Amino acid sequence: MTLVPQLIGKDASQREYIYDICKRALRQFDHMGYGAIDILLWDWAGKSIKQPIYKMLGGWRAKLPTYASTYHGDRNGGLSSPQAYVDFAQQCYDMGYRAFKMHGWTEGNVREEVETVLKLGERFRGKMTLMLDPACELRTFADALTVGRACDEAGFMWYEDPFRDTGISIHAHRKLRQFIKTPLLQTEHVRGLEPKADFIVGEGTDYVRADPEYDFGITGTMKIAHLAEAFGLDVEIHASGPAHRHCMAAIRNSNFYELALVGPKCDNALPPVYADGYTEQLKGVDQDGCFPVPQGPGLGVTYDWGFIEKYRTALFEFK
Amino acid sequence: MSAIDRIEIHEFTYETPNLGLDSSGFNFVYQPGGKFAMTNLRSWFARPMAVAANMSHSGAERK
């Protein structure tokens, strides 16, 4: 909201210029908030020339291999036990998913996390790609090391944001990499191009995270993707949305789309604002375990303005 | 030049059933009977044609 008045009068086609001035303006706010603006500018540009964004970016694929990314563990009868995670993974497998990521419990109980990891590996190793994201809930480096060794044993593809440094210590993650075999996925919580470059050079991660909403939009995400490419690494797009799909569709060095967040007994919380069938719900997967890339111009989605107006709580207008 | 001459931001709140927060107060979890209200922002960009971009998770309250 702070940035919006500054956009009036700017040339909508000058995304790099607007990125640059907004980046400076947000330097004391962890650079958060610009993503939606840049996505909007790309959507406008795509509609102007009647091309989907992923083709404007170069185009690599039109279907995205997808992992079901779970809600956190609960104590309410949903994802309430290691077996509940296994059962939900089986449900996802039966639907067509060939990749599954668990978020554990807020308590960061090492025994419970390890048991779940090992159970998932025992059942699905070789059938489904597995990932773990404790979301910084493990309290100590030792806890992170113990759970990481379980990931080694269970054959997990990656281990993400394990402990309470909140995902920002290059040194700690370089040390953790020295003790475990499972690749780390870091940089969700360091913002934008330069800090991620520092994480790569400092050997604090194996895969690189980028998010069009967090990392300066589509413009920022593609810079990060090319940064990772230059180092021979893969970039994994964080979370779900039309912009996320277009970015991944234009990136060769990326493996999975994150369908976040899903569980066995409640819907994805992303609001159903689309009038054209676009969905981020579990049922959206195809028989190959993929989600589609919208093919219309720009983001390729149509918003249900009736829905938005029905639930609107405020309208701000800038001229 | 395609000058930006108007921007609307629509804030709306939508409740997801059977969803709540865990004991930390930050993680979404299954909660039978719960109603989790999430506030979203959606921007509308006026000229030369209407487009929109979404920013979700901008705010939330437990109900």
Give an overview of the whole structure:
The complex is a heterodimer of chains A (319) and B (63). Chain A has helices at residues 4-7, 15-25, 35-49, 53-56, 82-95, 110-124, 141-154, 170-179, 193-201, 217-230, 242-249, 305-310, and strands at 63-70, 99-102, 129-132, 158-160, 184-186, 207-210, 235-237, 257-262, 290-292, 312-318. With 319 residues, chain A is α/β, with parallel strands linked by helices. Chain A has a single domain (55-292), classed as TIM Barrel, CATH 3.20.20.120. In chain A, strands 1, 2, 3, 4, 5, 6, 7, 8 and 9 form a nine-stranded mixed beta sheet that branches. In chain A, helix 3 crosses helix 10, helix 5 (82-95) packs parallel to helix 6 and helix 9 (193-201) packs parallel to helix 10. Chain A is globular. The relative contact order of chain A is 0.16. By secondary structure, chain B is mainly beta. Chain B has one domain. Chain B is built from no helices and three strands. In chain B, strand 2 and strand 3 (51-62) form a beta hairpin. Chain B is elongated, with a radius of gyration of 16 Å. The relative contact order of chain B is 0.32. Classes of the chains: A alpha/beta (319), B mainly beta (63). At the A-B interface, helix 3 and strand 10 of A face strand 1, strand 2 and strand 3 of B. Strand 10 (312-318) of chain A pairs antiparallel with strand 1 of chain B.
Keywords:
heterodimer; A: 319 residues; alpha/beta; 12 helices; B: mainly beta; three-stranded antiparallel β-sheet; disordered C terminus
Record the SSE blueprint.
The complex is a heterodimer of chains A (319) and B (63).
Chain A: H1 4-7, H2 15-25, H3 35-49, H4 53-56, E1 63-70, H5 82-95, E2 99-102, H6 110-124, E3 129-132, H7 141-154, E4 158-160, H8 170-179, E5 184-186, H9 193-201, E6 207-210, H10 217-230, E7 235-237, H11 242-249, E8 257-262, E9 290-292, H12 305-310, E10 312-318
Parallel strand pairs in A: 1-2, 1-8, 2-3, 3-4, 4-5, 5-6, 6-7
Antiparallel strand pairs in A: 1-9
Helix pairs in contact in A: 3-10, 5-6, 6-7, 9-10
Chain B: E1 7-21, E2 28-45, E3 51-62
Antiparallel strand pairs in B: 1-2, 2-3
